[in-house]
Amino acid sequence: VALRDHLRSVPFASLEPSAARELCAAGLEFCEGHFFAMEGHVEEVRKMLRAGDRLPPVALAFLENLACAAARARGDEDSVATAAEAALEQVSHAAPGPATEGNRLIATTQYAVALLRTGDVSEARARLTVVVRDTPQGDVALMLLGARSHLAWCDLADGNLESAMVQARSVIDDAVVRGWGSQLQLRYAYLPLAMAQMLRSEFDVADRTVVAGLAADVNGVEAWST
Q1: How far apart are CA 216 and CA 134, in angstroms?
Q2: If we measure between CA atoms, which residue out of 114, 185, 189, 120 comes closest to residue 157?
Q3: SS3 for 111-155, per residue?
Q4: Which of 27, 155, 209, 225 could disulfide-pair with 187, CB 3.0 to 4.6 Å?
Q5: For 137, phi and psi rounded to 5 degrees?
Q6: Distance of alpha carbon 58 from its chain centroid, rounded?
Q7: What is the pLDDT of residue 164?
Q8: What gap in Å lies between CA 21 and CA 39, rounded to an integer?
Q9: CB 216 within 8 A of CB 171
Q10: For the chain (length 226 residues), average pLDDT per consecutive 10?
């Protein structure tokens, strides 16, 4: 929320074209859930960097995290993993600070998501557990809910239905209290919950869970979850 409000105040029309301006525009589109428009700005940043413009490592890490989000929207897991690895590489060169740490946690989560979707549940769980352990509350609380949602999916993939349901319900309950029950990140809590309910033959309940999951589309929609 804080990032979105800052980006909305940027006077884009009065600024000279630059990689920094395009990166801010990409960040704003991400905050508004406009993933495809965001990807266009990401590509403009890359063009400007190839032409000789410069950005500090923490900004380059943010760029790669935005590229992850665009790839997730398309369902391109290979590109998610590639961009997440690039973000982590840039983080390793960035000065310590909240922005660097935030980008590290986001990139770690993105890479874990790519691992999970390609079947490496064990490594995905290990990375997501680190994210949940290391992530503070505050403006990254929504990201933390997303990481916890994917841990519920790890439980489901391992056949731990009860654990998956408990974890997913905990995420949903925490989100509803914050007014975030329709955020995109919650799809990954509704999804394992519905799957577990179906495997337990609780079809009517699962049907309502699927409907709630499909309605969780604030900040965009990703092809994989749909």
Answers
A1: 26
A2: 120
A3: HHHHHHHCCCHHHHHHHHHHHHHHCCCCCCHHHHHHHHHHHHHHH
A4: 225
A5: -75, -175
A6: 17
A7: 95
A8: 14
A9: no
A10: 82 92 94 90 97 97 95 87 96 93 91 91 95 73 88 95 95 92 90 95 96 89 80
Q: How far apart are CA 211 and CA 203, in angstroms?
A: 12
pLDDT value, residue 65:
96
Q: How many angstroms separate the most distant Cα atoms in the chain?
A: 59
| Distance (Å, whole) CA 6 – CA 127 | 30
Question: Residue 222: what pLDDT?
Answer: 79
First to last CA, the chain: 25
Q: How open is the CA angle 184-39-90, to the nearest 5 degrees?
A: 90
| Encoded tokens for 112 | 């874990």
User: Which of these, 108, 106, 120, lies nearest to 154 by C-alpha position?
Assistant: 120
Q: Which helix (H) or strand (E) holds 166?
A: helix 161-178
What is the pLDDT, as a whole number, of residue 86?
97
pTM over 0.90, yes/no: no
What is the distance between the alpha carbons of residues 153 and 98, in angstroms, rounded to a whole number?
28
Q: How many helices (H) and strands (E) does the chain have?
A: 11, 0
Alpha-carbon distance of 145 to 126, in angstroms, equals: 16
